[in-house]
């Protein structure tokens, strides 16, 4: 540790730390444009100038290492004059169009110009002008505003792993773009808007919509993938106008994937905003009373064993536990949350959680990916894997379709279960890399389990983990990567039928809670179907009664991410029309069905959640634990077929019911799907 004195304050910082970090440790705020905590150091804006004792001139604090006994001064005449000179140079070519700039009110250049700018300009020549670049349907460019901080280039290259942005020419002629004009193909492109310190990169869908001081901010959780990204929902006049990430170093750091950021316009389209009841073979608008009366009349007399319920991928924990309790009160145990057919053994949390935890990826030293493409299934989690590959030796083996570009170096091992067999008996060459690792980990994609031999694949993957010492009291390297934000909570709450229960026949009544992915063709023609959800798709079209629910931005709700971390989202806007929160709908339905649920408030429902699973008693925490029981899930590894693994998401931009209703995501699919087709696998970096 080095002792550094900053403006008379002595601090200790690690050897190799920068002067800027030492200043921050002392509580001094240093202006910067090019420096970013999660990117490499560029040192090209010079705004972070400070004075060091005995140094002949100001130094750039972001790139200058500390030395023991160093004395730093952050506010001297030399420092102030240096920063003012830098600011004057930055503003020479800047268009000064703050009144029409979408970055206005959130602009680092604006903020620093207040502190270090001049009230006049000494520059008389013509200003530089740069042609705007097209980089896709999500990011808007006004490149005359660019100050060449290169944050965007470094983000694309280092974090996203898609090095499509770069600089051409030098000096005043320098321009940042994509060389050949094209849309950015990364699923993390929206983060460029956040890290740009000026208005050169802004949100295309949000252009000229609002000012930041007009918005109401609500903390919530993204549910469009299973990472559990912490988000902030910005609203005005009851409408969602913007979604941005919140910093959480254990989950998403400060990044957000594009579908979670830009698909919110789907919340306003194709919505179910009133109850519907089928009469004479056609769905017709109805009142809540008529809908509940129809449910009570049609389900009266149906024995509990002939009633079934299924929950979908985006359902909150409060609604799931309410429906489970209602089914129990009606005498039904025909429950299902694996509407995609994934053969997940629900007997132990180890069999469905991301046990290493997202932050635990940083501690692993080898990785085997089976039947998953984390780049599209969980882009933010994939960025953390990429960061780990750049930090040091980290062999990555991939079992799945050939040619998938994961954005980091990996070794393609094979297409299907035959590779798992070779890893089981130790004959595969990648077994040596796993054997040398001290903390190897395995990621099993949910898509690899949604097959007829899914139970065998799950059992085989577990045995691969056992053979390669991934399961120890001090380390748990077996991970299942869920796809959406509601899938883990349903498994935690046991929304599955007992494995030994054989239904007496097809259901006479079926309750579909947000089960948009449920195959409606499997439902018998004479089955009475209740659909409860917020968007109407195939499952809703098959329903006899439709109950309009609330989307994730429209309710106080609890979600569980793939690692088993319970997080709470908050109501940002009210549901449209007559739509209501899902647990309240189920609670009201229990009255007319003669099976009244014993809770009337959100606090009572959450107390029931904590009783059902300890995960809900400790929100915002993911349990890090080893594996003391290596007994595997039910399934025979020898029953695996030779069918290659198929990836569950072929269209990242329209993978869920909300994004399928989004015009922005439809435009992304039109523009980007050909560009994101599988490419040749990257060589190990």
UniProtKB/TrEMBL annotation:
* Recorded coiled-coil stretches: none
Q: Which UniProt keywords apply?
A: 2Fe-2S, 4Fe-4S, Iron, Iron-sulfur, Metal-binding, NAD, Quinone, Translocase
Question: Which PROSITE patterns does the UniProt record give?
Answer: 2FE2S_FER_2, 4FE4S_HC3, 4FE4S_MOW_BIS_MGD, COMPLEX1_75K_1, COMPLEX1_75K_2, COMPLEX1_75K_3, PROKAR_LIPOPROTEIN
Cite the cofactor comment.
Answer: Binds 1 [2Fe-2S] cluster per subunit.
Under catalytic activity, the entry for this protein gives: a quinone + NADH + 5 H(+)(in) = a quinol + NAD(+) + 4 H(+)(out)
**Iron among the record's keywords?**
yes
> Could you say which enzyme class this protein belongs to?
translocase
Q: Which cofactor does it need?
A: [2Fe-2S] cluster; [4Fe-4S] cluster
Gene3D superfamilies hit by this protein = 3.10.20.740, 3.30.200.210, 3.30.70.20, 3.40.50.740
What is this enzyme's EC? 7.1.1.-
Q: Does the keyword 4Fe-4S apply?
A: yes
- 2Fe-2S ferredoxin-type domain sequence ranges: 2-78
Q: Name one Pfam family in it.
A: NADH_dhqG_C
* InterPro entries noted in UniProt: 2Fe-2S_ferredoxin-like_sf (IPR036010), 2Fe-2S_ferredoxin-type (IPR001041), Mopterin_OxRdtase (IPR006656), Mopterin_OxRdtase_4Fe-4S_dom (IPR006963), NADH_UbQ_OxRdtase_75kDa_su_CS (IPR000283), NADH_UbQ_OxRdtase_ferredoxin (IPR054351), NADH_UbQ_OxRdtase_Gsu (IPR010228), NADH_UbQ_OxRdtase_Gsu_4Fe4S-bd (IPR019574)
List the transmembrane segments.
none
Q: Which domain of life is it from?
A: Bacteria
List residues of the 4Fe-4S Mo/W bis-MGD-type domain: 215-271
Which ranges carry the 4Fe-4S His(Cys)3-ligated-type domain?
78-117
Q: What does this protein do?
A: NDH-1 shuttles electrons from NADH, via FMN and iron-sulfur (Fe-S) centers, to quinones in the respiratory chain. Couples the redox reaction to proton translocation (for every two electrons transferred, four hydrogen ions are translocated across the cytoplasmic membrane), and thus conserves the redox energy in a proton gradient.
What the record says about family reads: Belongs to the complex I 75 kDa subunit family.
From the Swiss-Prot or TrEMBL record, give the protein name. Answer: NADH-quinone oxidoreductase
Please name the source species. Craurococcus roseus
Q: What is the lineage of its organism?
A: Bacteria, Pseudomonadati, Pseudomonadota, Alphaproteobacteria, Acetobacterales
């Amino acid at each position: 540790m080095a002792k550094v004195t900053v403006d008379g304050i002595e601090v200790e910082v690690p050897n190799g730390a920068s002067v800027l970090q030492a200043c921050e440790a002392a509580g001094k705020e240093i202006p910067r444009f090019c420096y970013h905590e999660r990117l490499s150091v560029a040192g090209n804006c010079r705004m972070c100038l400070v004075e060091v004792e005995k140094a002949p001139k100001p130094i750039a604090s972001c790139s200058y290492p500390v030395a023991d006994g160093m004395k730093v001064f952050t506010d001297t005449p030399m420092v102030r004059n240096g920063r003012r000179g830098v600011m004057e140079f930055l503003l020479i070519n800047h268009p000064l169009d703050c009144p029409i700039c979408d970055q206005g009110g959130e602009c680092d250049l604006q903020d620093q110009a207040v502190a270090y700018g001049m009230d006049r300009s000494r520059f008389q020549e013509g200003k530089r002008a740069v042609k705007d670049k097209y980089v896709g349907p999500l990011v808007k460019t006004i490149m005359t505003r660019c100050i060449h901080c290169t944050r965007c280039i470094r983000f694309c290259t280092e974090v996203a792993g898609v090095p499509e942005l770069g600089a051409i020419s030098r000096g005043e002629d320098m321009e940042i773009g994509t060389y050949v004009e094209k849309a950015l193909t990364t699923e993390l492109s929206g983060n460029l808007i956040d890290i740009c310190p000026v208005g050169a990169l802004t949100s295309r869908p949000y252009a000229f919509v609002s000012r930041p001081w007009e918005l109401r901010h609500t903390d919530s959780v993204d549910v469009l993938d299973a990472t559990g990204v912490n988000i902030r929902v910005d609203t005005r006049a009851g409408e969602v106008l913007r979604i941005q990430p919140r910093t959480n170093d254990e989950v998403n750091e400060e990044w957000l994937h594009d579908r979670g950021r830009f698909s919110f316009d789907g919340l306003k389209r194709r919505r179910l905003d009133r109850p519907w009841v089928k009469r004479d073979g056609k769905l017709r608008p109805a009142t809540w009373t008529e809908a509940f009366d129809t449910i009570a009349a049609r389900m009266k007399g149906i024995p509990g064993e002939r009633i079934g319920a299924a929950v979908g991928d985006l359902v909150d924990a409060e609604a799931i536990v309410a429906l489970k309790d209602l089914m129990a009160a009606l005498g039904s145990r025909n429950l299902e949350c694996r509407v995609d057919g994934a053969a997940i053994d629900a007997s132990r949390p180890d069999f469905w959680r991301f046990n290493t935890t997202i932050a635990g990826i940083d501690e692993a030293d080898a990785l085997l990916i089976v039947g998953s493409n984390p780049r599209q299934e969980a882009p933010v989690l994939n960025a953390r894997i990429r960061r780990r590959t750049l930090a040091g030796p980290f062999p990555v083996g991939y079992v799945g379709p050939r040619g998938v570009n994961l954005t980091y170096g990996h070794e393609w091992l094979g297409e299907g279960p035959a590779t798992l067999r070779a890893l089981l008996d130790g004959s595969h060459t990648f077994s040596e890399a796993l054997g040398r690792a001290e903390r190897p980990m395995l990621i099993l994609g949910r898509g690899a389990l949604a097959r007829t031999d899914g139970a065998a694949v799950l059992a085989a993957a577990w045995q691969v983990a056992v053979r390669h010492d991934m399961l120890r009291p001090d380390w748990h390297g077996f991970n299942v990567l869920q796809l959406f934000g509601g899938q883990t909570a349903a498994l935690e709450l046991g929304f599955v039928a007992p494995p030994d229960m054989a239904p007496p026949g097809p259901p006479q009544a079926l309750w579909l809670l947000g089960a948009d992915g449920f195959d409606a063709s499997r439902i018998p023609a004479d089955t009475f179907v209740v659909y409860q959800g917020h968007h109407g798709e195939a499952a809703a079209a098959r329903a006899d009664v439709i109950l309009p629910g609330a989307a994730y931005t429209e309710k106080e709700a609890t979600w569980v991410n793939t690692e088993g971390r319970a997080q709470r989202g908050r109501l940002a806007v009210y549901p449209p029309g007559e739509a209501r929160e899902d647990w309240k709908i189920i609670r009201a339905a229990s009255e007319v069905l003669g099976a009244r649920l014993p809770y009337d408030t959100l606090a009572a429902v959450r107390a029931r959640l904590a009783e059902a699973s300890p995960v809900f008693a400790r929100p915002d925490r993911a349990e890090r634990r080893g594996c003391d029981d290596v007994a595997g899930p039910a399934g025979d590894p020898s029953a695996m077929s030779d069918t290659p693994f198929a990836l569950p998401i072929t269209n990242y931009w329209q993978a869920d019911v909300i994004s399928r209703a989004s015009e922005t995501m439809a435009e992304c699919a039109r523009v980007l799907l050909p560009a994101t087709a599988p490419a040749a696998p990257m060589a190990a970096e």
